[in-house]
Amino acid sequence: MKINSKPYAKLYPIVLTFAIMAILANMVLSFFQGSLTDSWYLGTAGIIVLILMVLRGPSEFKYDSEGEVLNFTTTDPIWGKLFKNYNKHYEFPKRRLNGYKIRKGLLRRRLIIFIKSRSGGIKERSMLISHLSSSQLSSLANSLKKYSHKSKNGGRKSGKSSRESRGATD
Q1: In this structure, what is the dihedral angle of CA atoms 41, 53, 131, 109, given to the nearest 10 degrees?
Q2: 111 to each of 30, 61, 74, how far by Cα in Å?
Q3: Structure pTM?
Q4: Are 148 and 98 in contact (CB under 8 A)?
């Protein structure tokens, strides 16, 4: 299964352009006498939009579960150069997925994945997935549930035991 939040990433440069134009228009209009009180909302709106863009996190999330590995990637073409934690990539075999959590906040959603390490411990990795739609989020949760369930049961499907499936009776 592949999940991609690319349409939101295409909208981000346009929103950023309008926010910067609003801030610049406020600065230019503030030089004219009497216009400082009339245009304060432009700069405030631009700054609020910039803050919301930074708080929401990376604009692009990619998930791929085809093959034997799970791929998670977050990128942001605008803020990725300033905030290095916006550009993340995790790739590991499906059998190593131990579990996951999706934390939902007011403006952010965070995916936390737990990976079995070779030394026997559990590694925790997290990434922001705020720009996924509700249908993409539910399909991501279903896919991760499927793979984490398999790893907890040793790769076997839950249900009838092998003794019951062979028709053995006590």
Answers
A1: -110
A2: 43, 11, 11
A3: 0.75
A4: yes
